[in-house]
Amino acid sequence: MTEKERLYTAVIYYNPELQPLEKQDITRLKNNPPEKFTTQEHVQGLAYLSGQVKPDEIKNANLLRVLNNRGTQQLFIGEAGQDKNISAKQIEQAKQAVKQHNLRSDDFRKENIEGYRAVNYNENTPIKYMSTLLSDALMSVLYSNTQDYELNKQRKAQEELEYELDKKKRQHHKHGRRGGTIHR
Predict the structure, then answer these.
(1) Separation CA 103–CA 43 (nearest Å)
(2) Cα dist. 184→74, 172, 176 in Å?
(3) pTM higher than the cut 0.70
(4) What is the pLDDT along the chain (184 residues), one digit of tens a residue?
(5) Using CA atoms, how far apart are residues 123 and 48, in angstroms rounded to an integer?
(6) Domain residues of the chain, as ranges?
(7) Quick check: 129 and 10 in contact, CB under 8 A?
(8) Is 8 exposed, middle or buried (0-12, 13-18, 19+ CB in 10 A)?
(9) Non-local CB neighbours of 17 within 8 Å, separated by 6+ positions
């Protein structure tokens, strides 16, 4: 999986509203990813992945969105695996069902799409996924650009202000208003 896809998966899972995140929010996500779903939603999601529940039976639209994306499915299974109220058997059933579905889907795509290569999704826990994804190198790249952006924004605002002041100065000069003196 590419870095862009990993980042997209993390954003879709942890920040579906696409709210801007500060550096401390991302650090918190990296070190202690929040649990996005309740035990009941974990049970329902695992049942859906195992083929025991139909999509229209799931009331939480965010859960359904997560379950319909291959990458976020793995994060969901990892999160459900950390839930103490979920049995290992339920997790294993969901993993097997997802694996079978992905194999069938990949076989179909290989037959119908020339040059198709399957993407292998590894089992992950949310904390392992986020700490791998949000490495120090990526964090420095993300936030060095933010600092450059802020400097450019300030510079542009200053240039606009200077332009407006020059414009007013030209208007005053054009209309004969020179320093408040009366023309004779």
Answers:
(1) 24
(2) 83, 17, 11
(3) no
(4) 466 677 777 777 777 777 887 778 877 777 778 888 888 998 999 898 888 888 888 888 888 888 888 778 888 888 888 888 888 888 898 888 888 888 888 888 888 888 776 665 666 667 676 766 666 556 665 666 556 667 777 888 888 888 888 888 888 777 665 555 555 5
(5) 18
(6) 3-133, 135-184
(7) yes
(8) middle
(9) none
